[in-house]
Amino acid sequence: MKALVAIKRVVDYNIQVRVKADGSDVDIEGVKMGVNPFDENAIEEAIRLKEKGIVTEIVAVTIGAATHQDILRHALAMGVDRVTLVETANSLAPLAVAKVLKAVVEREQPALILLGKQAIDDDAGQTGQMLAALLNLPQATYASQITIADHQATVVREIDGGTQTLSVSLPAVITADLRLNEPRYVKLPNLMMARKKPIETLPLDSLNLSLTHSVQQLKVAAPPERPAGVMVKDVNELLSKLRTHEGLLP
Amino acid sequence: MRTLIIAEHDGQHLNEQVARAVTAAQHWQQPVDVLIAAAQADGLAAQAAALQGVSTVLVAADAALEHPIAEHLAALVVPLAANYSVVLAAHSAFSKNVMPRLAALLDVNMLSDVLEIVNSNTYVRGIYAGNVLATVQSSDAKQVLTVRASKFSAAATGANAAIQSVTAPAAPEGSRWVAEAFNKSERPPLAAAKVVVSGGRALGSADAFKDVLAPLADKLHAAIGASRAAVDSGYAPNDLQVGQTGVVVAPELYIAVGISGAIQHAYGMKDSKVVVAINQDPEAQIFKIADYGLVADLFEAVPQLTAAL
Ligand SMILES: Cc1cc2nc3c(=O)[nH]c(=O)nc-3n(C[C@H](O)[C@H](O)[C@H](O)COP(=O)(O)OP(=O)(O)OC[C@H]3O[C@@H](n4cnc5c(N)ncnc54)[C@H](O)[C@@H]3O)c2cc1C
After folding, report:
1. pLDDT tens digits, residue range A61-93?
2. What local confidence, expressed as pLDDT, does residue A245 receive?
């Protein structure tokens, strides 16, 4: 069966981004970028399913500018078979991304569609569910375990207070949580080899979609800073602060 | 037009966040309805009807809704949505799963984890692990959103809203609920607790969570939380992870024990009223967001603290 993995290029998770002086947007110029961490879990899972003989081919797709080829190379180096860049200069909201991915799914006809559960830049956490809705397919989000047999996926999901297990018939959309697996380390020779592999590029216009941009970012700001705290010298001082200053403890 | 709240519950009790969503829903100054989808809905409907500010409780009672799945809930709400200009829910694992599916079926964008409702279509939400606050405006005819419950007070009870039943669609094929496993605990639920005691990688074992952290939490009637590193190391279960990709908490008191304070962790706890950090490294990031910092070995300081309470 074919697996499709949708991935996003985001600011590296170690970096604390800054707001531009005019408050118009976040300043990410020259900042280190990489594959969204949860998407890396999704890639890893597809590769493991291929190693188990369940998946036969893995296609990774991303949407963005030509610079986004780097994360597709990373996916190739991890072990993905084919990659597609849907090229656009605009950044798209989750619904538009889901519409683009729907068009790619219709071309590729995968049995399994994997995404990360959320992107660490916009923290929206919507794309997988939206894609499942548009395709009228079952969804299993926040997967921490996936078992596939007889065209069914049994998915253990992380929910508030514990876990839930769902059984979904394939094709289905599954979104990966961090606990799904530990993404493999990409070795340099693999990265070198991945450089030579072709990247299919589809101009967004060629998909003939009508995408509306109904959400506008008016401004961004840094959150108010917490006032500087107090260092206490021992447990007794801490207790007296919490009791007398904060009135928190009996 | 009207506002619809999708209510989360466990089959018996309405989640306490629903009352907070009701407060958020007042911003549109139009009637607020609450939807209960359950196998047995009478008790739940009564709880929702008691919330001040609720106009009508819509009840979809159907055996197939015993463990409602996103596909079923979204299919239930789509036809109802014609009467509503706003559909919202409190931001939780439950609504994060359902609301985007619903929004896509309605062909509108969705706003996740809204911190502030500026006006009827403008919101403030956190991006980049809460390091940036973005003000966003949606021109969609229907606003679909989830709100950060801790940013809104709970609606009072004592009201008596009308209850109206609605028909649930047939359960969708292709998805089946199999099982659920909840981590049993006598402690208050993490997202709603007034005091949270969280442990990090420094605890070093699940036993230390039990032997060092739990007695402190017991004395404070606190929920226990954990950093991702502690969860990944198996010291604490997944659902206790506080942070960008875990649970967001805003208790009156948050005690971070042996936690470095990475941005992903800070995202989940920096709205706490008072933050205490215990860490042996004076340079630890967590001290920058703590109101009270104690540089100490947790294995000494925490038992001392527990004993002194
Ligand atoms: C995509 C992504 C999402 C993430 N989401 C989350 C999330 O939701 N929540 C989260 O918490 N993290 C998250 N993380 C991980 C986060 O980046 C940090 O790695 C993690 O929070 C670190 O956990 P920690 O503070 O327990 O461990 P460490 O960073 O190892 O810190 C341990 C601390 O304990 C102190 N210490 C050691 N021994 C003692 C002692 N005896 N007494 C006192 N102090 C001691 C040390 O000085 C150190 O500061 C995420 C990461 C990624 C990439």
Report:
1. 999 999 999 999 999 999 999 999 999 999 999
2. 85
The CA-CA-CA angle for residues B195, B200, B201, to 5°, reads 165
Residue A249: the pLDDT is 80
Q: How far apart are the first and last CA of chain B?
A: 53
- State yes or no: ipTM above 0.95: yes
Q: What is the mean pLDDT of residues A183-201?
A: 96
Residue A250 has pLDDT above 80, yes or no: no
CB-nearest to A220 from B129, B133, B228 is B133
Residue A246 has pLDDT above 90, yes or no: no
Across the range A3-30, mean pLDDT stands at 96
**Per-residue pLDDT tens over the stretch B163-185:** 999 999 999 999 999 999 998 88
Per-residue CA distances from A214 to A56, A103, B102, B109, B218 (Å): 39, 20, 16, 7, 48
CA distance B176 to B69: 8
> What is the radius of gyration, based on Cα positions, of chain A?
21
- Distance in Å, alpha carbon of B2 to nearest chain A alpha carbon: 21
Query: Residue B288 — pLDDT band, cuts 50, 70, 90?
Result: very high
Mutate to test the interface with B, among A152, A159, A175, A243 (most CBs of B within 10 A): A159
- DSSP helix/strand/coil, A179: helix
CB hemisphere CA count around A159 (13 angstroms)? 24
Which residue of B254, B265, B276 sits with most ligand 1 atoms within 8 Å of its CB, as the best mutation to test the pocket? B265
A139/B232 touch (CB, cutoff 8 Å), yes or no: no
pLDDT of residue A225: 86
d(CA B236, CA B240): 7
Give helix A94-108 / helix A127-135 axis angle, nearest 10°. 50
A41-53: b (≥16 Cβ within 10 Å) or e: bbbbbbbbbbeee
Do residues B256 and B229 touch, judged by C-beta distance below 8 A? no
Per-residue DSSP letter, B241: B
- Taking the alpha carbons of B271, B274, B277, B278 in that order, is the dihedral positive or negative? negative
Helices marked H in B61-210: 70-80, 93-105, 206-208
From chain A, pick out residues whose CB is under 8 angstroms from the CB of B93.
142, 158-160
